[in-house]
């Protein structure tokens, strides 16, 4: 399918100056969201992540076990939205969370670089789902985006989406830190949505520049524009470098201001994080917590 031609139907990307103004405004008003209620919601929106070369069946099992037992230890804090792991550990997590409502997110499709054959990407996604993944995070082909091969990049997403049941959540990572400019971040977000993404996600967390409030603002403006044109709500996920409660509250505020409170549900807002979980718990509990 041709996608690039549809980009002109949407609002142009904001200028860097406008984005900078918006970031300053968001930082100022985000202070109102430095509170326990927002921190608890942000905790519940986390895709709790372990994506390390040191991951093993033993370590991932323990990671999942602690997540399942969380509410026994912290009964007043809503649990995280999902556990996010490499596809080879989906079955491991499935065994650990069996009988609970915990969702399983798998990165797949040649994560984190997406530099492999489309057939391999599609097969890896299919295997992750067959093993029990409820949600799949893939990476938009950044190389194709940087060389202007927009239709090819979007068609990879379309091909993968077509292989998935409608109830599987597809998150597309645009790797905003590599795209850099407002125009490319806007184009990547819209192409992902047009090709079937349920969420657009900032980053893999595997390059130097991960989630930034600048990218979040551009992405959320694109989501708003897409919703106004199509009526379809697409979620936003900030990932990579989200560490402090204040970081989480800033992304919460960006979503709240641009997309509205109706986006502040775990069906439409996620945070990909590991260290942020303990830091949010510390802010909520009022004492140092190192649960994970």
Detailed description of the structure:
- It is built from 13 helices and 8 strands.
- With 292 residues, the protein is an alpha/beta fold.
- The chain has one domain: Aldolase class I (TIM Barrel).
- An 8-stranded parallel β-barrel has the order 1-2-3-4-5-6-7-8, surrounded by 8 helices.
- Helix 2 packs antiparallel against helix 13, helix 3 runs parallel beside helix 5 (90-97) and helix 10 (182-194) crosses helix 11.
- The radius of gyration is 18 Å and the shape is globular.
- The protein starts with 15 loop residues before the first helix and ends in a 7-residue tail after the last helix.
- The mean pLDDT is 97.
Q: Which key terms come to mind for this protein?
A:
TIM Barrel, eight-stranded parallel barrel, 8 strands, 47% helix, globular
Strand content: 5-15%
| Strand and helix order | HHEHHEHEHEHHEHHEHEHEH
Q: Using only CA atoms, what is the Rg?
A: 18 Å
Q: Termini distance?
A: 44 Å
CATH architecture group name: Alpha-Beta Barrel
Class inferred from helices and paired strands: alpha/beta
Overall 3D geometry? Answer: globular
Spatial sequence of strands, sheet with the most strands: 1-2-3-4-5-6-7-8
Average pLDDT number: 97
The largest β sheet comes out as:
8 strands, parallel, barrel
Using DSSP, what is the number of strands? Answer: 8
Task: List the uncertain runs.
Answer: none
Number of helices: 13
């Amino acid at each position: 399918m041709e996608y690039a031609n549809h980009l002109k139907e949407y609002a142009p990307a904001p200028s860097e100056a406008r984005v900078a103004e918006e970031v300053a405004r968001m930082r100022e008003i985000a202070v109102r969201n430095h509170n326990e209620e927002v921190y608890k919601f942000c905790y519940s929106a986390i895709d709790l992540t372990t994506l390390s070369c040191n991951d093993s069946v033993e370590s991932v099992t323990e990671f999942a076990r602690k997540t399942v037992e969380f509410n026994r230890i912290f009964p007043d804090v809503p649990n995280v939205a999902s556990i996010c792991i490499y596809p080879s550990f989906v079955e491991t997590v499935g065994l650990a969370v069996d009988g609970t409502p915990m969702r399983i997110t798998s990165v797949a499709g040649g994560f984190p670089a997406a530099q492999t054959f489309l057939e391999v990407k599609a097969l890896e996604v299919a295997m992750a789902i067959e093993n029990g993944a409820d949600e799949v995070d893939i990476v938009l082909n950044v190389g194709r985006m940087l060389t202007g091969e927009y239709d090819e990049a979007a068609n990879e997403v379309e091909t993968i989406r077509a292989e998935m049941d409608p109830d599987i959540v597809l998150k597309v990572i645009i790797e905003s830190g590599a795209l850099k400019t407002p125009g490319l971040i806007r184009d990547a977000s819209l192409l992902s949505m047009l090709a079937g993404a349920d969420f657009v996600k900032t980053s893999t967390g595997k390059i130097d520049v991960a989630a930034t409030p600048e990218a979040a603002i551009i992405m959320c403006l694109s989501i708003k524009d897409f919703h106004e044109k199509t009526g379809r709500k697409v979620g936003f996920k900030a990932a990579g470098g989200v560490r402090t409660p204040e970081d989480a509250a800033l992304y919460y505020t960006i979503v709240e201001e641009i997309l509205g409170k109706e986006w502040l549900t775990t069906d439409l807002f996620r945070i990909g994080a590991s260290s942020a979980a303990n830091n949010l718990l510390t802010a909520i509990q009022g004492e140092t917590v190192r649960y994970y």
